[in-house]
TrEMBL record, chain A:
It comes from the Eukaryota. SUPFAM superfamilies: BolA-like. InterPro entries: BOL2, BolA, BolA-like_sf. GO terms for biological process: intracellular iron ion homeostasis; protein maturation. Belongs to the BolA/IbaG family. This is BolA-like protein. Residues 84-97 have a biased composition (Pro residues). It holds the Pfam family BolA. Residues 1-25, 77-97 are annotated as: Disordered. GO terms for molecular function: 2 iron, 2 sulfur cluster binding; iron-sulfur cluster binding. GO terms for cellular component: cytosol; nucleus.
UniProtKB/TrEMBL annotation, chain B:
The keyword Iron applies. Belongs to the glutaredoxin family. CGFS subfamily. GO terms for molecular function: 2 iron, 2 sulfur cluster binding; metal ion binding. It comes from Erythranthe guttata (Yellow monkey flower). This is Glutaredoxin domain-containing protein. PROSITE patterns: GLUTAREDOXIN_2 (PS51354). Keywords: 2Fe-2S, Iron, Iron-sulfur, Metal-binding, Redox-active center.
């Protein structure tokens, strides 16, 4: 039985409470291979290895059926904000010139 | 028939000794001077004589196809002069007509061009000799005969043929370190648990990569990427092939438990698991890896 993208998302949402989550199915439809981008407060102060472990642990059940899980990003909200500066708000006055 | 003036070169053993691959007894086309009634006559030692004589007789035919070095015309390397694209032997001269290098090739024209491009300052003119029926032995013999002739005439090995001179040979990729083996072989009963061996290995080496396949030819795309990242960082690292059932038997299962990490490759830094391919890729992209290895 394959794991659906929705299952992966809901599990990660409930266990890691991410502020940003992007799960994409890289298996070509069979549901055995996923790529995950995840941003969560819970990663604060943790090394990348520990963050990956957290994701793997959260998905322990699903992993039994997932053949390959690639975690391309596991960031804290702060890091995420640095990498993805919010689009400039057209309503706000321009910064002092 | 090329008269190979070997007798004089045989009288200058000091110059011959400087050339490590040079076996006068094996390559001696001189034998033909004696028209071989009994091949053992010209040779003081007896053990190799029979064989040597046979080889030399056969090779004489081949060697005679190439002109002597001194009889070969010296041709400037320029766009007007086209060289044959055949196999053969060639000698490269600098602008003072000093011999720089003698080489053999499967394509004279291509080799001359390559040398001209890579060392234009030393590659001024060239002599080429096409070798008919160019098997490896015939080429080698042609090369030896030119080398011998030059050594006999000048008492010197061409500078480019001196051991350690890499001017004319394509710089081979730096030799890769061998992969580490955890055990002496699957037939040997270990006296220490494999886990302890892993533990010692990762603690004694700054960076250790457990990969599928060898570092020179990784067998999985993720291992390949990890090796590529480590090499691009220019970091010294050890590698262990987890697929090597002979010397690393049982490593995959034991290592998974040791590191509590389910997949390979696994990279350890200072005794701690750094991560697999995803983690290394992320850290490589954001620069953390470079910072880590600088310490």
């Amino acid at each position: 039985m394959a794991v659906t993208k929705e299952q992966v998302e809901s599990t990660l949402n409930s266990k890691l409470n991410p502020s940003h989550l992007d799960v994409s199915d890289t298996s070509g439809g069979c549901g055995a291979s996923y790529c995950v981008e995840i941003v969560s407060e819970q990663f604060e102060g943790k090394r990348l290895l520990e963050r990956h472990r957290m994701v793997n642990t959260a998905l322990a059940e699903e992993m039994k059926q997932i053949h390959a899980l690639s975690i391309t990003k596991a960031l804290t909200p702060q890091q995420w904000a640095l990498q993805n500066p919010p689009p400039p708000n057209p309503q706000s006055p321009p910064a002092a010139a | 028939m090329a008269a190979l003036n070997l007798s004089s070169s045989l009288h200058s053993p000091s110059s011959l000794r400087r050339f490590p691959n040079f076996h006068p007894s094996r390559s001696t086309p001189t034998i033909s001077f004696y028209s071989l009634p009994k091949p053992s006559i010209p040779f003081p030692s007896t053990s190799l004589v029979q064989k040597t004589a046979l080889i030399s007789r056969r090779l004489n035919v081949v060697v005679s196809a190439v002109k002597n070095l001194s009889e070969t015309e010296l041709v400037p390397v320029s766009s007007e002069n086209e060289f044959p694209s055949d196999s053969g032997v060639y000698a490269i001269y600098n602008d003072s007509d000093d011999l720089q290098f003698i080489g053999i090739t499967r394509n004279l024209a291509a080799s001359v061009l390559t040398h001209k491009k890579s060392v234009p300052e030393l590659c001024f003119s060239v002599k080429v000799g096409v070798v008919e029926e160019p098997d490896k032995t015939a080429l080698t013999e042609a090369w030896k005969s030119w080398m011998q002739e030059h050594i006999a005439a000048s008492g010197k090995v061409p500078p480019g043929n001196e051991p350690g001179n890499t001017t004319w040979v394509k710089k081979a990729a730096p030799r890769k370190k061998p992969d580490l083996r955890l055990t002496p072989g699957s037939h040997v009963q270990l006296t220490v648990p494999l886990e302890d061996l892993i533990d010692r290995l990762v603690k004694e080496n700054k960076v250790v990569a457990f990969i599928k396949g060898s570092r020179s030819a990784p067998l999985c795309g993720f291992s390949q990427r990890v090796v590529g990242i480590l090499e691009s960082q220019g970091v010294e690292y050890e590698s262990v092939d987890v697929l090597d059932e002979e010397y690393n038997y049982g490593l995959r299962e034991t290592l998974k438990k040791y590191s509590n990490w389910p997949t390979f490759p696994q990279v350890f830094v200072n005794g701690d698991l750094l991560g697999g391919c995803d983690i290394l890729t992320s850290m490589h992209e954001n620069g953390e890896l470079a910072g880590l290895f600088k310490q």
